[in-house]
Amino acid sequence: MRNFNSRREWLKKSSLTILTGLTASSSSLAFSDKIRVFADEMIHLDKNENPFGVSPMAMKALQGALSEGHRYAVASTKDTLLQKLAAREGLNPENFLTTAGSVEVLGLTSIYVSRNKGSVICPYPTFATLPNNCQRLGMELINVPISGDKIIDLEAMKAKIKDDTRLVYLCNPNNPTGTILEAKLLRDFVEEVSKKTIVMVDEAYFEFLNQSVADLVKANKNVLVSRTFSKVYGFAGLRVGYLIGHADTIKDMAKYQATSTLGISNVVLHAAIAALDDKEFLAMYLKKNREAADFTYKALKEMNIAAVPTQGNFMMFPIDTYKGKFGADMAAKKILLRDDFKELNGNKWGRVSIGTIGEMKAFVEAMKQISW
C-alpha cells in the first residue's frame, strides 16, 4: 500500500493527475490510471463519482464560459440543453425539467407526491434520498426487501400497493447493489403499476446499461424518470440533473421548483451541452470503468469475498464476518468507502466506488492488510 502520510510526497504524486483533470485536451490524456487523492490525502471511493473528471469538451466549454460567470443563465442556453436531451431520447423538450443534480429531482418528487400524504413503496436497500424525504414529509415508507440474488423484487413491491400509495420508487441499476432488472420485466411492471399510482425509475446510472423506460412518458402521466450528469459525465460537483415525464406532469411539477432558469449556472449549462457531444470520452470511461470493476470483482473473489456483480460504477460486498470497524479501518489505510448498508434481515454490506485501476489496486491492497 502506498503511503500518502507525507504531504510533500502526496503533492508530488498527485499534482500531475490533478492538473490532468483541469487541463485535459484529449481523452487519452484525461484517462490516467494513477491514484487521485484529495487535499485530505484520502482516496475517495465513497460517492460513485467519475474519477477522471469532466470530459475534455466539457472542460473547454467550462473554461470558455467563465468570462460570462458574472451573468445569470439565460433561457436560450437551457433550451439548447433541453433540445439535445429531447433529440437523444426521441421526446420533446416539454418532457424535461432541468435541475441542480438529480437530488433536486428527488426532492421535487417527494414534495409533489406527499401533498396528500399516503404511502411510498421502495426496495431496500436503495438510494435513500427520496424515501427519507417522503418519510420526513409525513408519508408512510414501505420498504420491500430485495431478493436473495440482490435484485429488486418487483412482485413483492406490487403486493404492497395500497389505496393510498402515492409513489412506487426504484433505481435501475439499483444503488447500492449494482444489480439491474431485466428490461421487459421492468417495462411490464411500470406499465401495470402506473395504472394505479405514480412510478419513478431512478436512472442515475442509465448510461452504464443504456436501458430505459423514458419513452413511456409520451402517453403516460404516471411515469417519471430521474437522471443526472454526476456519474458518467463527471458533474458531481457541477450539479446538473433532469426529470423526464409527460408534458402535463412536468408542467405541474415545475410549479414546485423555485426557479426554472437560475438553478443551474450559466457556466455549467455550457459544459453540460458540450458533455453530451463528447462521445469518445463517454465510451472510454465506460471501458475503463468496466475494466476496473472486473479487476476488483476478481480480486475480492480471490480473497473469498463474494461481491455482487455490478452494472454501475460501484460494487457491494459482504462485511458480516469482519472483526473490527470496517470503515474506520479502511480510512486508516487512506481509503474512504461506505460500510453502512444493511438488509432488512440484518446482513451488513460495504460499497466501494469504482475508481481508476491504480485506486482499485490500492483498495485491494488495503483489504488484504486489515483483519478479516
Descriptive tags:
Aspartate Aminotransferase, domain 2, Aspartate Aminotransferase, domain 1, 2 domains, alpha/beta, single chain, about 375 residues, disordered N terminus
Low-pLDDT sequence parts:
1-29
Distance between the termini: 17 Å
Query: How many structural domains can be distinguished in the coordinates?
Result: 2
Rg over CA atoms: 21 Å
Strand-pairing-aware structural class:
alpha/beta
The major pleated sheet works out as: 7 strands, mixed
**CATH H-level superfamily title of the largest domain:** Type I PLP-dependent aspartate aminotransferase-like (Major domain)
Outline, from the CA principal axes?
globular
Number of DSSP helical runs: 13
CATH topology of the largest domain: Aspartate Aminotransferase, domain 2
Gross CATH architecture of the largest domain? 3-Layer(aba) Sandwich
Order of helical and strand elements: HHEHHEHEHEHEHEEEHHHEHEEEH
β-strand percent reads 15-25%
The number of E-state strands comes to: 12
Description of the structure:
- The chain is an alpha/beta fold and 372 residues long.
- The relative contact order is 0.16.
- It contains 13 helices and twelve strands.
- The strands form three sheets. Strands 2-8-7-6-5-3-4 form a seven-stranded mixed β-sheet, sandwiched between helices. A three-stranded antiparallel β-sheet has the order 9-12-11, covered by helices on one side. A two-stranded parallel sheet has the order 1-10.
- It is globular, with a radius of gyration of 21 Å.
- The model is unreliable at 1-29 (pLDDT under 50).
- The protein has two domains: 7-54 and 279-369, Alpha-Beta Complex (Aspartate Aminotransferase, domain 1); 60-277, 3-Layer(aba) Sandwich (Aspartate Aminotransferase, domain 2), CATH 3.40.640.10.
- The longest helix has 24 residues, at 279-302.
